[in-house]
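Reopening this one. Same input as before:
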Amino acid sequence: MLARMSTLVLFAVLVGGLGCPKQSSTTDSAEAAPAPEKSRFSGETKTFVDALLATGIVGYDVADEGASVVYEEVKLSVDGTYAAATTLRLGDEDPFSCAESGDWTLDGDQATSATEGMVTFNMNSTDCPGRTAPKSWRAKLEISGSDVIVSQF
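Same output, byte for byte:
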């Protein structure tokens, strides 16, 4: 009798486990998405950096010896890195598309206003012929509407 009851209990546990699926915990995509990185800036500096990150930089020349280097589009990240789609022009030859990347810092971690700041770029990687990494330069950046104006190197 005991063996028969043990068999029935074991059968009930097995059938009960198979017949009733466990409820799965579900999370919506907003809960699963990583939280955006918090800015370390505040006040006018945060306003400037947020606009710079949202806007990016389009079409500015980078000083180089013997070649015209145009950063067609620069995407800046809150973590202090940048990636640039670049065009290299040598005299009358066809332009050459390449890419450069590196890091950027806001001088003194402070903007001069909500629309202007001095930024140092450190190019750490390039596949542009004739250019070598590392290279550094400073630029005065001004937010004007939906554009970033590079007014000084």
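So the earlier flakiness isn't reproducible anymore. For the record, The first helix runs from residue 2 to 19.
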